[in-house]
Design goal:
The structure is a single chain. The chain is of the alpha/beta class and about 725 residues long. The protein is about 35% helix and about 15% strand. The protein has an 8-stranded parallel β-barrel with strand order 1-4-5-6-7-9-13-14, surrounded by 7 helices. A 6-stranded parallel β-sheet has the order 20-19-21-22-23-28, sandwiched between helices. The chain has a 4-stranded mixed β-sheet with strand order 8-10-12-11, with helices on one face. Strand 2 and strand 3 form a beta hairpin. The N terminus is likely disordered.
């Protein structure tokens, strides 16, 4: 990441921050991101956010939240407490008043009462907090109008250009009136006007639509700047869809240009329009002017120009000649791609500055993560994306993104080895598949030298399910790695480990090897302890000596099964078989030698890439019309291997340590797991036979209840979600055979 300290249009590039704070309405239901994240009930959050080095915060003081029933009944308590923290800590606040919302229930984006209502609320905010000098009365008015009035996702759920035009004009009028009301109390108040800025590309047949979209993206800013009159490119469009000439020209006569143009930019911002719908059988086409068309991300289409923020920032500069800030920079992806995206946005802003644009800041958005944007916040499924912090444990946990922001804030160069390499939006694997092209299994490349000099993750266990899963997903996520066999690194031999570390010089080591045969261990204890206890201890000593992060795996079988509820990380271990004792001793040996190692306890794997797991066997038997027996008196927590690996990689990039329990959360018996999978697969579960642990004739005793929960955070998706994805992958692989 470049850090340009030379003279620029407005001093050095600043780092700002923001929390995802959408309060949107779907039908009669409001979705409140700040409530979901728990931020409103955590007074210490502001200090955590300040620790990142941000100088300015986009902070919500939202109309729907503070005064849903009118100003007379406004509840300022949360805003008072959090804004006081900002003021004491010297954080510049950009107050957001409506964020993808439609106002309280008494109004909406297309109601005449929206603009004067927001203005009255803005005046009350300014009177209460006269020290706040920056405002965003309405976040992304054009984008919100599209989602609410053109696409119908959010309230008032309209689907017409007429409603869209009304919503844009109404929100922009509300912005002008709100700033007038604010400036009564604070004449120096400044408008930071945000909107999503991308660009639309497409096939020649869609060029006329792309041209219209590329004009439309400026509309809200143009209105506020007083640039819309009879000569404007959209003048005829506005009047044809319900606008009156005088209400449009009102903005020319009451200009309220942004003091800072806020550009929100995502990997989805640049679009590709394609009339060849048959080339995208997996996407649902829409209708544009009565013509079927695919609207997809430009990054997914090889014909589209490479996405880039720098030329878009220069377009903003040339059009308005006003100061610019990137007011949202965030991506939902693996942790390393989150780092890569933020670095790319920062460098794009620096490049625009070098070309003469007055770009003031980059805003790290969604610092506390966000919920349900995979459905555009149209349903509350609890789908969480982490940011600089992960809040799933109740207390915000810093991720690697937090570390990168601190580096940016202090002028340091990017330092995380996982961030080296291209993000998914730059890799050839990003493109939509050609028609009829079957998804092929990811090629496992064990030699990272093909990708330059990036230090790799070193993964032991080349012949095992877990080791190969790590290699597969590292390849998918463009993480350099080396998957090694016992011949290449014998984890029980200190000299072999030293040679491997010297050869591949990894930044982290994942011990995915070990003894896994629970019943055989009763007669093979020496080998079991050597591989599960001695080997991890050897790795811990070597990694501690060389400053290499270590991850190793333990088991639910370290517990005796007598608890009435699932076990958490702090519960005492008390194994009842040889295998469990070897894992418990391995945990103690690793953490005793390397306190910052990461120890993952997990349970009952199932996954799509091997046929040696319980769920596959159960479904295979039912498919063949055979009976399948499983015990109903042993309680476990199943774990979907792709979820486990993805989460582990995020924790490794974050530098996490200590014991973590990672499973898909549901405590079920083996027979219940088989029934869930069968039902999900549409198979008749009548062929499933419930038996007991005694009927299985296990050699090693099993704990009756080895279910795992977490006192730190439950990071994996639900079992139901995992089974759905497993069955989809299984069906795809069956179809390819």
């Amino acid at each position: 990441m470049s850090q340009n300290s030379s003279s620029t249009p407005a001093g050095s590039l600043a780092l700002w921050g923001g929390i995802e704070c959408t309060v949107n309405r779907v039908g009669d239901r409001y979705f409140n991101q700040a409530t979901q994240s728990g931020h409103e009930s955590r007074p210490d959050d502001i200090g955590q956010l300040q620790s990142l080095g941000v100088s300015t915060m986009r902070y919500p003081v939202l109309w729907e939240r503070v005064a849903p029933d009118g100003l007379a009944q406004a509840d300022w308590r949360v805003a008072d407490a959090q804004l006081a923290q900002c003021r004491v800590r010297g954080i510049t606040v950009i107050a957001g008043l409506v964020h993808h919302g439609s106002g309280p229930r008494t109004t909406s984006l297309v109601e005449p009462s929206f603009a004067p209502g927001l203005a009255a609320y803005a005046g009350a905010v300014a009177a209460r907090y006269p020290w706040i000098e920056h405002y965003t009365p309405v976040n992304e008015p054009l984008t919100t109008a599209r989602f609410s009035a053109l696409y119908g996702f959010w309230y008032p759920h309209e689907h017409s250009d007429r409603a869209f035009v009304a919503a844009v004009l109404n929100q922009c009028r509300a912005t002008v009136l709100a700033m007038q009301a604010v400036r009564v109390h604070n004449p120096a108040a400044r408008l930071v006007q945000t909107d999503d800025l991308g660009k639309t590309w497409g096939t020649p047949e869609m060029a006329h639509v792309a041209a219209f979209y590329n004009e439309r993206r400026w509309l809200a800013w143009d209105l506020l700047c007083g640039k819309v009159d009879t000569t404007h490119a959209l003048w005829t469009y506005l009047l044809e869809h319900g606008a009156q000439a005088d209400e449009v020209l009102w903005f020319r006569d009451h200009p309220c240009p942004p003091d800072i143009v806020g550009v929100n930019y995502y990997v989805t911002s640049e679009r590709w329009l394609d009339h060849r719908v048959d080339q995208y059988p997996f996407l649902t086409p829409g209708l544009l002017g009565g013509v079927a068309c695919i609207d997809t991300e430009s990054a997914r289409v090889p014909e589209a120009p490479a996405t880039s923020l720098t030329p878009l920032l220069l377009e903003v500069w040339e059009r308005y000649r006003l100061p610019i800030a990137v007011t949202e920079a965030h991506i939902h992806a693996g942790r390393e791609d989150q780092l890569r995206w933020l670095a790319e946005i920062w460098d794009a802003a620096q490049a625009a500055r070098a070309a003469g644009a007055d770009v003031r800041a980059v805003t790290a958005w969604a610092l506390l993560g966000s919920f349900d944007w995979d459905s555009l916040v149209t349903r509350q499924a609890g789908h969480y994306e982490s940011g600089a912090f992960d809040i799933r444990g109740g207390t915000p946990r810093p991720t690697a993104v937090a570390g990168l922001l601190r580096q940016i804030a202090t002028g340091q160069a990017q330092a995380h080895p996982a961030a080296l390499g291209h993000g998914w939006w730059r890799r050839p694997t990003r493109y939509h598949a050609a028609p009829g092209a079957a998804d092929q299994p990811t090629t496992i490349i064990t030699d990272p030298s093909a990708d330059g000099a990036r230090p790799p993750l070193l993964i032991s266990g080349a012949s095992g399910t877990l080791g190969r899963a790590f290699a597969r997903i590292c390849a998918q996520r463009n993480l350099a790695y080396r998957l090694v066999s016992r011949a290449e690194m014998d984890i029980t031999d200190p000299d072999s480990v030293e040679r491997a570390l010297a050869t591949w010089q990894p930044w982290a080591l994942i011990n995915a090897s070990g003894y896994v045969r629970v019943d055989d261990a009763e007669q093979d204890a020496e080998r079991c302890f050597r591989e599960n206890s001695v080997g991890p201890a050897v790795l811990a000593m070597a990694c501690a000596r060389h400053g290499i992060h270590l991850t190793t795996f333990s088991s639910d079988l370290v517990f005796n099964g007598r608890a009435d509820s699932p076990y958490v990380e702090t519960d005492d271990v008390s194994p009842i078989n040889v295998y469990g004792r070897s894992k418990a001793q391995g945990e103690q040996a690793v953490l005793g030698r390397m306190s910052h190692a990461l120890v993952i306890r997990t349970s009952s794997f199932f996954g799509p890439w091997d046929q040696y797991n319980f769920v596959h066997h159960a479904l295979g038997a039912l498919d063949a019309g055979q009976a399948f027996a499983a015990p109903g008196d042993l309680i476990i927590t199943p774990t979907y291997v792709p979820d486990l690996v993805d989460t582990c990689l995020n924790l490794i990039v974050d530098g996490e340590c200590g014991v973590w329990h990672l499973t898909n959360g549901a405590a079920v018996s083996w027979i219940e797991l088989a029934r869930l999978a069968a039902t999900r697969a549409g198979l008749d579960p009548a062929g499933l036979v419930e038996n007991t642990a005694g009927d299985c004739h296990f050699i090693a005793p099993r704990p009756t209840n080895s279910a795992l929960d977490s006192g730190r955070a439950n990071l994996l998706p639900t079992l139901d979600d995992a089974l759905a994805r497993f069955l989809m992958q299984r069906a795809d692989m069956t179809a390819q055979q």
